[in-house]
C-alpha cells in the first residue's frame, strides 16, 4: 500500500474527505471549525453534536483580527494553540492556572484552581477568546463572569470533557444565547478539541484556509 507522506497533502486530503462525508449543510464560515473538530477526533459522528452560535465565527474572527488574546483553562489547551499564527494577528495565548496566588486563593474561596484563576484575572477576559478544554467548573465560572458586560469574552469555546459536570456545563453555556459560543454536546471534548476550534479561527483570521 502506498501512503501519502507530504504533510500538507495529508491534511488537505483529510479535510476533503471530511467535507464529502458531512451530513448537514453548514454555513461556509463554520465549515473549517467543523472539519477540524472531526479531524481531531477522527469521528464523523461528532458532527451531530457540534453547536455553533450564529454569531460565534464573526465575533471570534473580529476579536482575533483586533489582536485579542486566547485565554485557556489549562496549559494543555494553551500548548495546542497555533501561537505563531496568533502572534501575527497581535494576540497571545495565556493560561493563568500557574499564577502563584491561585492555589492559596482557591483554598480560601473553596473553589477549583481553574475557577479561581479565571476569577482572579477576570479583567483580562473582556473581548478575548476563552477556550475551556478540561474543567467544567471553569466553564461554569466563565458563564457566571460573562454576566458582567465589562468582562464578557468575545467568544467562549466550551469543550470540557468527562462524566461529572461536563455535559451539564455545556448545556448551560448553550442556554446563554447572548454569549457567542462553540461547544459539543455530551461528555466528549478535551484540550485537543478546544485548541482545534481556536486554531480553525486563527487560520481563518490570518488568511490561511485550513
Attribute tags:
6 strands; 210 residues; six-stranded mixed β-sheet; globular; alpha/beta; Rossmann fold
The whole-number mean of residue pLDDT values reads 95
CA radius of gyration is: 17 Å
User: What percent of the residues sit in helical stretches (DSSP H or I)?
Assistant: 40-55%
Tally of contiguous helical segments = 10
Number of E strands: 6
CATH-level-4 superfamily name: Cobalamin biosynthesis CobH/CbiC, precorrin-8X methylmutase
- By secondary-structure content and strand pairing, the structural class works out as alpha/beta
Secondary-structure element string: HHEHEHHEHHEHEHEH
Give the strand line-up of the largest sheet. 1-6-5-4-2-3
Q: What is the CATH third-level topology name?
A: Rossmann fold
How would you explain this protein's 3D organization?
The structure is a single chain. By secondary structure, the protein is an alpha/beta fold. The protein has a single domain (48-205), classed as 3-Layer(aba) Sandwich (Rossmann fold). It has ten helices and six strands; from the N terminus they run H-H-E-H-E-H-H-E-H-H-E-H-E-H-E-H. The chain has helices at residues 7-21, 31-41, 56-65, 75-80, 83-88, 102-109, 113-120, 136-145, 166-175, 191-205, and strands spanning 50-52, 70-72, 93-95, 129-132, 155-158, 181-184. Strands 1-6-5-4-2-3 form a six-stranded mixed beta sheet, sandwiched between helices. Helix 6 packs across helix 7 (113-120), helix 7 (113-120) runs parallel beside helix 8 and helix 8 runs parallel beside helix 9 (166-175). The longest helix has 15 residues, at 7-21. It is globular. It starts with 6 loop residues before the first helix and ends in a 5-residue tail after the last helix.
Amino acid at each position: 500500500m502506498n501512503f501519502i507522506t507530504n504533510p500538507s497533502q495529508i491534511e488537505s486530503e483529510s479535510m476533503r474527505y471530511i467535507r464529502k462525508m458531512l451530513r448537514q449543510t453548514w454555513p461556509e464560515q463554520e465549515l473549517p471549525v467543523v472539519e477540524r473538530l472531526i479531524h481531531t477526533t477522527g469521528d464523523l459522528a461528532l458532527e451531530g453534536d457540534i453547536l455553533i452560535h450564529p454569531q460565534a465565527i464573526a465575533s471570534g474572527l473580529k476579536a482575533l483580527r483586533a489582536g485579542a488574546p486566547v485565554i485557556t483553562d489549562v496549559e494543555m489547551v494553551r500548548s495546542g494553540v497555533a501561537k505563531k499564527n496568533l502572534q501575527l494577528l497581535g494576540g497571545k495565548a495565556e493560561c493563568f492556572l500557574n499564577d502563584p496566588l491561585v492555589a492559596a486563593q482557591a483554598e480560601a474561596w473553596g473553589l477549583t484552581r481553574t475557577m479561581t484563576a479565571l476569577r482572579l484575572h477576570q479583567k483580562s477576559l473582556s473581548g478575548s477568546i476563552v477556550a475551556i478544554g478540561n474543567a467544567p467548573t471553569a466553564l461554569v465560572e466563565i458563564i457566571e463572569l460573562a454576566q458582567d458586560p465589562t468582562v464578557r469574552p468575545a467568544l467562549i469555546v466550551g469543550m470540557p470533557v468527562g462524566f461529572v459536570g461536563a455535559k451539564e456545563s455545556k448545556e448551560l453555556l448553550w442556554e446563554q444565547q447572548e454569549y457567542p459560543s462553540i461547544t459539543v454536546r455530551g461528555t466528549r471534548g478535551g484540550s485537543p478539541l478546544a485548541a482545534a476550534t481556536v486554531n480553525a479561527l486563527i487560520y481563518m483570521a490570518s488568511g490561511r484556509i485550513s
